[in-house]
Amino acid sequence: MNQFSIIKVFIIMLAIAVGSCSKTEDIVKPDVIHWNYEHPDWQTQGFSECAGPIQSPVDIQTNSTIKVDLPNLDFNYSAFPIKIIDNGHTLQVNNNGTNRVVYNKKTYDFKQFHFHYHSEHLLDGVASDMELHLVHQDPSSGALLVVGYFLKKGVANSLFESVLSNWPKQKETEVSTTTSIDLNSLLPSDNRYYTYMGSLTTPPCSQGVMFFIVKTPIEVSSAQIDQFKAHYDHNARPVQPLNSRLLYEDIL
Ligand SMILES: [Zn+2]
């Protein structure tokens, strides 16, 4: 390889890195510009896509959803050791893609999950105590598929406990643990959902994210909610206008 081809390869790699950044920000989150939930007008802070027409979260108005029989979310999950980071906006557990979800004959690799207090999506104008986001990515196109669950006050959840008890002491540093978790133990047996096309709910608010909000909530204890809240008592983006989008409801 001569000097010019090395430079050329470097430029191409740089272009790929920059190009992939916008799609995977929720996964990588290099915080070039600081943002917060006190001033969620992120479009005025250098994140122009946050003012786009297909943003998340939204208020799910159940009387105006389109009720149809939609494909199942087929989770292909198995146990993996917790790699965890407090990224300054939420608590996040990362995975290297050993878990998958199949939707409409397409496979999406599981990347990470994280939490919001209170829920970001509303159901008929009402927020749930918390919301869990399972983030998946199509390895070929880079398209994101996020499955959201409402967490509500009830019995303590052992998986949530494992995650909370591994909260890293230092922010923005991923910690590898020997604690193993299996997301199968978390998911309700009924995975029927609401779905729509939206965006990342954090800057840069990249659009084109397939959002699924499962109808059956997951129970966590009030002590567990308080434990999360002690770190993040408001990390939920306000709901965004639905505009011309349709919201589908899987009923069968
Ligand atoms: Zn989220």
TrEMBL record:
It catalyses: hydrogencarbonate + H(+) = CO2 + H2O. Belongs to the alpha-carbonic anhydrase family. It comes from Larkinella punicea. Keywords: Lyase, Metal-binding, Zinc. This is carbonic anhydrase. Coiled coil: none annotated. It holds the Pfam family Carb_anhydrase. PANTHER family: CARBONIC ANHYDRASE (PTHR18952). GO terms for molecular function: carbonate dehydratase activity; zinc ion binding. SUPFAM superfamilies: Carbonic anhydrase (SSF51069). Its EC number is 4.2.1.1. PROSITE patterns: ALPHA_CA_2. It comes from the Bacteria. The keyword Iron does not apply. Residues 33-251 form the Alpha-carbonic anhydrase domain.
